[in-house]
UniProtKB/TrEMBL annotation:
Listed transmembrane segments: 26-44, 50-73
InterPro entries linked: YdbS-like_PH
Name this polypeptide is given: YdbS-like PH domain-containing protein
Keyword match Magnesium: no
Keywords for the protein's UniProt record, in alphabetical order: Membrane, Transmembrane, Transmembrane helix
YdbS-like PH domain span: 78-155
Amino acid sequence: MSTDIFRPVGEDWVPVSASLATGRRLVAMPMLALPAVAAAVVGATTSSTAVRVAATAGVVVLLVVAAVAWTWAGRNQRSWGYAEAEDDLLVTSGVLFKRLVAVPYGRMQFVDVSAGPLARRLGYATVTLHTASTETAADVPGVPTEEARRLRNRLTELGESHGAGL
């Protein structure tokens, strides 16, 4: 199975920060751990066999979901990348369903950089390219903070120079 359709011609992909996976895991794990602990406490403190079985099944399901979420975070982080081509920014993502978006520099209206408290602590941001069409807008999560600043400035310059002829 060839994935050449998702590779830029003559360009190298720039991967996003591994901290993106860490951030996603730090969000997901407590949301799964709290109900698992609650189910374990209920199962341990009840005298009903049916409730103990249900609580044990709940804990097992939550542990499986946690393992899947942990694995997904890493695979999803590794699927993201971008490449600065001559006329557009290429963004790829997706593990199961691959996606490649080419955003022409001349079509960019503005570039947005955002980071929540956890992302700032882990040193990454999301760079969003806005165009008139929602189909060609693109997010690049997990860009290291300094690279996000550089990319924002570079894309703004390229957008202005390529859009001047419109």
